[in-house]
Structure prediction request, 235 residues.
Amino acid sequence: MWKTPGRFSLTGRWCCFPQDPLEDLDAWTESVDKVLACKTGQAAFRDFLRSEHSEENLQFWLACEDYKKIKSVPEMITCANRIYSEFVQTEAPRQINIDCHTREKISSNICQPSLTSFDAAQKLIYCLMSRDCYPRFLTSDIYAALLRRSEATHCWSLACKDAPGPRLAHHLRPEPFQADLEPVATHRLGEMRLTGDSQQGRGSPKRIPATERPSETRPDCADPARLPLNGFTPC
Prediction:
């Protein structure tokens, strides 16, 4: 089984390409070469060909591309026989649509294959895809779904670019309010303090007269004669 790109769905999800690039989507309208040049294009085009029951054309073309990269003779012979039995010979499971002359020529040379054994058949299949399948692909629902996805991704990227980042949002966040600290008035005269009940939420703030507050233990106020007067302690 030849490795081919993952299947594309109209929901915009891929089986094999979680981060498929869509930057060159507009370039696909230039030629079928632009579609075949990237994995995303191959996957989308293959899914379209599957809907037309001609998926074997792309599979054969990709198999020939891999075949021409083989370096060792034993591997080339094995791969040539595999391509021939799967795509070329009569009644093959994925028989491609080529003329009888090209098919017979490949059959006669399959015992001694070369890197150019399938070039003529590959060229015929390329022309078939370029002239027949490719124009319909550009008007298909699959390509339209890709265009919508590309536009939505672009809008989302712009929105993220204009939005404040996490660091900025953190600085804009207000400081937490420390409710567990005991409030202490800055002025001694008429000072307000919370009793134990009010600190625990069981009462309301009460004014504690200055005469009821315990005397401070500062050394310069240790003289009993210098008691607080009207809430003010002279030192």
Strands lie at 192-193, 206-207. Residues 50 and 153 are 27 Å apart (CA to CA). The first helix runs from residue 32 to 36.
